[in-house]
Amino acid sequence: MLRYHMQGFSGYGVQYSPFFDNKLAVAAGSNFGLVGNGKLYILEINRDGKIEERNSFLTQDCLFDIAWNESHENQVLVAQGDGTLRLFDTSLKEYPIAIFKEHEREVFSCDWNLVNRQTFLSSSWDGSIKIWSPLRNQSLMSLTPRPLEITKMVDPLNAILSNKKNFTGISKNKNCVYQAQFSPHDQNLVISCSGNSYASLFDIRLPPSKSQTNFLVHSGLEALTCDFNKYRPYVIATGGVDNAVRIWDIRMLKTSGSATTSRPTHTPSHNAACINEIPNAHGLAIRKVTWSPHHSNILMSASYDMTCRVWKDLSNNGIKETYKTNSTDTGKGCLFNFTQHSEFVFGIDWSLWGKPGYVASTAWDGNLFVWNGLG
Amino acid sequence: MSDACRTNPINQIIQKGHSIHNGSLIPSKPTRFIHREPTAHHIDKGPHAETSFLHRASNMKSVDDVAFQNRPSLTSFENHIEESSSWIPQFSSMEINDPLEFSSEYKNLYSNYESHQRQNSSRQQFPITSSMVRKTASHLPSRNMFRQQRQENRNSSTDAFKFDAEFQNLENEIQEVRYEPIIQEDESWLDQDQLELQKIATDIVKCCTPPLSSASSTSTVSSIDSKLSESKFIQLMRGISSGDVTLKKEANGHSASELFSPSNGELVGNEHIPVENQSHRGAYN
After folding, report:
1. What is the ipTM of this complex?
2. B165 contacts chain A (CB < 8 A)
3. What's the CATH number for A2-372?
């Protein structure tokens, strides 16, 4: 296990370089990301197995996510708390090479398109997802999940509490889009998850009225993270405040009617796409899930319970469906439990390089750990 | 000294061995349980398979006798049953009126509650879902809110959950008693953002305070509790909740980028370093 400590900063996001096997980028914020500066760390693992800082960029506000430019080995994109995205060149100092500002609130996630490599996206607390080109300062497209109508339908909390005294508006972050991602198989598919407990699947080729399919993923509690399977194009995983990891087959989603154009209805079809579940995968909410780049049935999760866990998706044996679920397994399919962090774990990433299984994790304790999740 | 005490055990063994050797298992001394009258069990004097195997036909009669002799008297037992059966109806008809006994409705509600509690761990939902305690943050979905939501839904669905709702209210009250932030008297100078942050921090501390029943909880939950108790973030939240730490507003009075202690004016956490909002022009190709 390798360790690097970011003095005075809390880790929010980490990603291995897609070009160099020993290079990592970490997004961090001071004061646990509440107030203050952010910092982008460019780290390298040297031949002695030590992690060293190669470059760093101080930012005005906290950084919440990170994405390497898939078509340029020196460029890193960060999502910032002031509503901007900033593209840094790791060979330069101090300032970014481009600033993208349209979001009205904190930007929580960013992701580079792995297929066309020419676009990236961002998701924000303002409830929108924006698709950008690094060549333009204005976004190419803005996507808005239909959270309000659906939230009102599934969650009567607003109506209940609005009649009570001291109602402060619990649903203020219902519209927050915690994470959005391009499909690694199709440059036009985007998945997102929101505070209204819905995941939204977008096909950006379609007109806005028909471009999205929403489905309830975490029982009315906030959905915090989602990820496409790297080998099975129709499989995604989600994690949320109900401490569960769920695996979905998007082929089974109903694309017409309820979730797109007309008023949503409460039919079992919302959950018909769930093909596997890891209930109580962690002791507290799950902040990040990510599928392995080397195995079609292995994924990793990070949680507010300060642990990272590697799971085997028992519904698939790597070749075909087994029709089993992790919930019926004695150990729930857990392969590894990493407990070295002492604060909430926010960032995890699989190494693309070398022997499969190496991962990096970062947490609010300011530590970056590199460890082997597959023993 | 009685005769029983004078009995030499070696002699008894020898006598038993002699009896066995003589082809009889009848004790040398008749016991009090000997009852020689035939009963229904022994009307049939046909050969018993086990006894015939063990003792051959010549010993059959004596073995049956021993077995029979060592049984307690069935007739005396039946007499006892007849005597005892006379008071059983009387006993079963007795009623104990306990003035402190819970009502049947309460028992039903409590059994529902117990089954519900087994299914749902009280610490399943953790409200800190992001970096939400930022300076403008009022978006923390507090644990109590979730509880209220669940309670309201349950109240509307079935009466069985009324007890659950009441119990949750009591639990909330207990937790509030356990953690009452020390609010400073001069807190009136706090502005809206600072008060909001304080409220959020209080909610976080409450939800991260281990429940009273944590002693009997699982090891996983207790390890989370121990980690939370040592968490620097939770310690900061405690400080903000109690008013020892708050946002340090900038000169314009609108934004804040540092935390400080109002009591002594000292900076808490990292100092904010202003960074110019500029970029390397033309660097991107």
Report:
1. 0.85
2. no
3. 2.130.10.10
